[in-house]
Amino acid sequence: MVSRCKARKRYMKQLVKARQAFSAAHIMYLRSLRNTGSALLQFATAETNLLHHHHLPPLNPTTPPPPFPTPPPPMSPISWTTTTSTTTSSAIRPPPPPPPPPVPSASTALLWNWGSSSARWNAFGKSCGDPIGNNVGGLAADGNATHCSTVERLYAWEKKLYQEVKNAEQLKLEHEKKAAILRKLEMKNADYIKTEKAKKEVEKLESQMMVALQAIETTSTEIIKLRESELYPQLFQLVMGLMSMWRSMYEFHQVQTHIVQQLKYLNFIPSIEPTSEIHRQSTLQLELEAQQWHLSFCNLMKAQRDYIQSLTGWLRLSLFQVGNNPINKTTKQDSTIYPFCEEWQLAINNAPDKVASEGIKSFLTVIHAIVVQQAEEQKQKRRSDSVFKELEKKAGELRSLENKHGPYSILETSGDSNKDPVREKRAKVEILRAKAADEKSKYEKSIGVTRAMTMNNLQMGR
């Protein structure tokens, strides 16, 4: 029983840390998603501005756009796992957790609080307070306990239970030792005083054992009370919130997919506007935010798996007992929290998050390709500018020679060769002019490739 309580304490300690990591990962994911959306809007706006100088024809009347997608129906307990298995990567939709069994109504939203052993603060700057005391800082705005407070109080009670069970086990061993001594004294008809002394020691240990067992029962009752009256409703709210979040996100992705599908029916006139520095910076920013989005999504899924794994591990040890155990009075049939969490864990383990992750990575690959192409365009621009600058310099030198010698200079005899400085300079200028025209053509082609690559990827919904 001591080893079991030690394992329970270890799982609860992991749960406290996993809750903090889950909270942080969830906040970072939402923040990175918002930043990615802002960066994508800035990127698309910069690209759209380059098309304002060109006429955009209306939709092709012969090929109507696809109808607007209908929102997904409410998910049933049977269909939610199979529905997500056919979800495409464009939706980037990990499945929501399963619908939980009914519990007493809880009208307030769950507060996910940042926490540590010394100072604990939520997003609104309110302290979570003492994990086992009655500090009002561990209450939400409506007076209910926060999830941070509940989990840390459970951890404090688990530590207390472990010490009490450990002490009770030591008393039990001591009692067995003293009882064996007393039996030997009684069998040998030993001195009356020694026998009575040994009997009082045994009775004292029995009394201490009774007190220890009562303390264990009291602590176990508090753990059960917290688990059933606070933890379960909070988990219910959490799962409902996650389901609502992913469902809303899925609906928004459906709207975006519809808009992208409509772009396929627009025949854009290729733009010849070069990529501006602002546009290039917006593309780099989009790549950076998309990388953070991918990282935060992977961290979120890992943190959620770690959280539910620690939770179900603790519930298994606290709900399923072997033999008569004074630690827990409830069984699997008495509590619905375990099947609820077990179904949640199954949902998370079967979530197609790798498909979503690969979808984000594919998006990153496309953005990186645009970044590389924009860099190539800037590189070609520098080459073209350099050649034109050299052309202007040589053309100026040619004009100076023509002003000095006239358009046709007298041949200068030097040894066996005749030199015409104006003609030689003119030949060099013509070579540079042809090179400048070639570099300009390459630059314009590079601009066209950049614009086409960007628009094609936008129209394809990548």
Automatic annotation (TrEMBL):
Residues 107-368 form the DUF632 domain. Residues 158-215 form a coiled coil. Residues 2-47 form the DUF630 domain. It comes from the Eukaryota. Pfam families: DUF630, DUF632. Residues 77-92 have a biased composition (Low complexity). Keywords: Coiled coil. Residues 54-104 are annotated as: Disordered. The keyword Cytoplasm does not apply. InterPro entries: DUF630, DUF632. Residues 58-76, 93-104 have a biased composition (Pro residues). PANTHER family: PROTEIN ALTERED PHOSPHATE STARVATION RESPONSE 1. This is Uncharacterized protein.
